[in-house]
Amino acid sequence: MKDGQSLIEDKLNSAKYKKILKANFLKPATLIPILLLTFIAGCAIFAPILAPTNPYDLAIVSILDSRLPPGEVMFNGTVAWLGTDGAGRDVLSAIIYGLRTSLIVALTSAAIALTVGLVVGLIAAFYGGRIDAFLMRIVDIQLSFPAILIALVLLALLGKGVDKVIIALAIVQWALYARTVRATAIVERRKEYIEAASTLGLNNFRIILKHLLPNSISPLIVLATLQTAHSISIEATLSFLGVGVPITEPSLGSLISNGFDFILSGAYWITFFPGVMLLATVAAINIFGDQLRTILNPRHSK
Amino acid sequence: MTDLLNIRKLSVSFKMEYETTDAVRNVSITLRPGEVLGIVGESGAGKSTIGNAIVNLLEPPGEITRGEVLFKGQDLRNLDDKQMRDVRGKKIGMIFQDPQTSLNPLMTIGGQLIETINKTINLYGSEATNKVIELLESVGIDEPEARLNLYPHQFSGGMRQRVVIALALAGDPDLIIADEPTTALDVSIQAQILDLIKKLCQERQVGVIIITHDIGVIANISDRVTVMFNGQAVESGEVKQILTNPKHEYTKSLIAAVPRGDRKVERFKSIDYIEGGAQTQRRIDLDQHWLGKKFTQHYSDTAISINDLNKKYSLKKAFLKRNRSYVHAVKDVSLSIKTGESFGLVGESGSGKSTIAKLVAGLVSTDKGSIKLFDQEVTNKSKGKDVIAARRNLQMIFQDPYSSLNARMRVQDIVSEPISYYKTASTNMEMRQIVRDLLDHVGLGSNAMLKYPHEFSGGQRQRISIARALASRPKILICDEPTSALDVSVQAHILNLLKDLQDDLGLTILFISHDLPVIRQMCDRVAVMRHGSICEIATTDSLFEKPQHEYSKHLLELMPKTDFI
Fold first, then answer.
1. What angle do CA A191, A197, A198 make, to 5 degrees?
2. ipTM above 0.85, yes or no
3. Residue A9 — pLDDT band, cuts 50, 70, 90?
4. Which residues on adjacent β-strands are paired with residue B310?
5. Interface test with A, best of B317, B417, B424 (most A CBs within 10 A)
6. What is the DSSP code string of B94-151?
7. Min CA distance, B421 vs chain A (Å)?
8. Considering only alpha carbons, which residue of chain B is nearest residue A6?
9. Would the CATH topology of B26-58+68-257 be identical to that of B299-393+475-485+512-565?
10. pLDDT at position B284, please?
11. What is the C-alpha separation between B83 and B71, in angstroms, rounded?
């Protein structure tokens, strides 16, 4: 039987699906964002190794290095390829470390929001009626406020800190996931396999987990990618406004805001390079998300 | 008389990125004015593709690779888009399957017809309106003046299909292509629409091509027929000759698979031409096998007893009672089904037959009345142990094989779910063996275990559904239109399988269908339903021989005649 099983599995894996997947992944529109994202993620993960200096180490930050233009040599001998900021920190190193903070905040908050939204959306779709109406009105209320406004209020209440930004971003985003998953799940809920599962006598928890969830999750994968990009921007905005992550753990947003004071005095690089990095990251994730949507399209994945 | 349409050696293929499908191969068809040609075949036979190829409406990447389409001596393939549009509106009319979607819901009936008339025969103003009224009258719509300003949703399905026919006639076409024109309609309306098409065809000397899967429709309306199989025309000729004396093996098997309404046969003839060779179906010895274990228990003689059952669906919710409105889906229904019997529920759409199935299966709650399974009251979802145990005796086979299986689960997980959930097998090995036996038993083979549902055809999926239902060792099986989404040959296989299972396992079957011949072949007793209540309960033979109730007589008269076989 073992041979038979593996034979069938081989056949399945080698089938058309793989070909289609390959053809889609080899397009430049997919390949370039993937390479860029790999590079960005690599930078974030290996920041301590890659960065020329440690921007958090106050002992090596010298005020004498402040506002050096790109390419100048710093006091301790390293070249500041992208210049230094007002406090004398190497902008390149700060970007690499800032990327780390930005990505951690975005990914964790997206994961939390996704989980909460998934649970709420599935429950609303499965039980329907009053439960659905109640949960969806909360979602409506949530979505009727601008995300940035809610985040600002929350952070004003919670105070500063990476963990608080993550909580604020999760609260801002869960409603969108909940609404998306409900829309898919409500269609799936009416299909006969759900009725079949309940005639088998399965309990609701199992029906939701094993039948409704796997069939409703695919639109969320794309949404989650796009929302990660969005939450990077929100976090950057919050940090720019000064309520985001603390200055000791700068993110891309706080770096941009940090350099804003000097932009009129000609030290453009303090703001410009973190800005470019933010743009590249968000754009890469967005394009990747769009491609993922094409690849995961039911017509292809069939 | 010259030919109206002459298709010579037409081939159509769909070039996909990784493979090319030849949908139509070398098909030749001729049609004279005033003649009805039927194109019959099962899904995937290429019959709709021919229709679309004639009017150049092939969906990309489909294209005509060879052959010619001569319409009144002119090759339609040489026309550009603009000329083709003229032909489509003025010379060739199309009637599609679903009258719900072929009319614009935001435009009035009159508006849609006037728009078409403006474009096709350049009549405007009151002349156009008069023409519309005349058209609507000719398709049998009463008081057309009053109905001009109504929207499609205010019409019934049959009326809408009449409007669609009027639209097709608006440009005084010479040819009408009707693609499954009555598939979405009830039998009584089907008969009317077919009569109408036939009448119009003779009155106006229009050529009609009817594309359908239903031999009954062909027998009733067409003069000649072409049988399609796998992209090829396997046989064509006069209807009578083809139906009574088919030459080709495929035609023979197709006709043999049509359920007969006039008498009951033991089994459908084995037709191995279609579903990939003979299917070995293993019998299970109940005394030894896991499937039989539970049956040693004692069961009472009445499997399902329904008393005074009522169900209303609310159409309009409102705070005040007088503003609410309901549809009474099931009205004072009482019936009892004996253990081991197969009981049929028959009726047209909206008669409440599916609602009864859902009520019995506990999928919707009852408003009034009681349902007992083996003397255990199961009405409404009380969670008692006895109720759950009683419910496990009952399983359901659904209508749509495409949505009744979870697409994200492997077949083995789908079938084994009830076994693992109730822990009715001691080890994983045993469970896998049971799944293998079940799949063998429904004629699928254990190769199916590791595949996903989308790799199977409709008939095979229905077999998976049946295996899943059997895995919880039911005593009662509710089949809600189990074969109405399937081709006739596949339907014959599935119905045979259900009969075998009933014999082997002693199942009680509640069989729901709108299809009288199928009911005749499957059931011991039948209840005829209309508007939520039962008109007549009788044994199948006596209902079909001597119907008592007016409505039963009416239904039986409309039943497609199959006495040609």
1. 100
2. no
3. very low
4. B368
5. B417
6. EE-S-TTTSS-TTS-HHHHHHHHHHHHH---HHHHHHHHHHHHHHTT-SSHHHHTT--
7. 7
8. B450
9. yes
10. 61
11. 13
Question: Quick check: helix, strand or coil at residue B342?
Answer: strand
The closest alpha carbon to B398, from B324, B448, B465, belongs to B465
Q: Which residues of chain B have pLDDT under 70?
A: 1, 17-18, 269-288, 292-298, 380-383, 561-565
Choice between A79 and B520, residue whose per-residue pLDDT is larger: B520
User: What was the pLDDT predicted at A299?
Assistant: 47
What are the angstrom distances between the C-alpha of A72 and each of A21, A80, A82, B216? 47, 6, 9, 89
Residue B371: how many other CB atoms lie within 10 Å? 20
The answer to whether A12 contacts B450, with C-beta atoms less than 8 Å apart, is yes
Q: Tokens in use for A119? A: 């649970």
Give residue A116's pLDDT: 96
Mean pLDDT score, A235-262: 83
Residue B235 or residue A71, greater confidence: B235
Q: Inter-chain contact B406–A8, Cβ cutoff 8 Å?
A: no
Residues of A in contact with B409 (CB under 8 A): 210, 214
The CATH class that applies to domain B26-58+68-257 reads alpha beta
Q: What is the DSSP string of B461-485?
A: HHHHHHHHHHHT--SEEEEESTTTT
A97 min Cα distance to partner chain B (Å):
41
In the chain, the amino acid numbered A119 is V
Could you identify the residue written with the tokens 């209902």?
Answer: B543
Q: Which residues of B303-323 are buried (b: 16+ CB within 10 A; e: fewer)?
A: bbbbeebbbbeeeeeeeeeee
Distances in Å between the Cα of A46 and the Cα atoms of A42, A43, A56, A251, B34 are: 6, 5, 15, 16, 80
Q: Which of A5, A201, A211 sits opposite B406 (nearest CB)?
A: A211
Separation of alpha carbons B317 and B117, rounded Å: 41
Identify the DSSP state of B442: T
| CB atoms inside a 10 Å sphere around CB B268 | 21
In angstroms, the separation between the Cα of residue A215 and the nearest Cα of chain B is 7
Q: Are B496 and B504 in contact (CB under 8 A)?
A: no
Examine the pLDDT at A126 and tell me if it is beyond 90.
yes
Phi/psi of residue B255, each to 5°?
-70, -35
| pLDDT in the model for residue B190 | 83
User: Of residues A9 and A208, which shows the higher confidence score?
Assistant: A208
Assign residue B299 a region: left if phi > 0, alpha if psi is -120 to 50, beta otherwise? beta
Paired with A79 in beta bridges are A73
* Structure confidence at residue A251 (pLDDT): 85
Give the rounded distance of the alpha carbon of A32 from its chain centre: 18
Task: Give the residue extent of every domain in chain B.
Answer: 26-58+68-257, 299-393+475-485+512-565
Residue of A22, A192, A302 to mutate when probing chain B, most B C-beta within 10 A: A192
Q: Give the pLDDT of residue A1.
A: 33
Task: Note the pLDDT tens digit of each residue in A268-295.
Answer: 888 889 899 999 999 999 888 888 877 7
Q: Is the domain covering B299-393+475-485+512-565 a CATH 3.40.50.300 domain?
A: yes
User: Cβ contact (<8 Å) for B404 and A23?
Assistant: no
- Please judge whether B361 and A197 are an interchain contact, meaning their C-beta atoms are less than 8 angstroms apart: no
Which structure tokens are listed for B186? Answer: 């009830």
Name the residue type at position B465: S
Evaluate whether A117 touches A135 at the Cβ level (below 8 Å): no
Q: Tell me the whole-structure pTM to 2 decimals.
A: 0.79
Planar angle of CA A67, A72, A74, nearest 5 degrees? 75
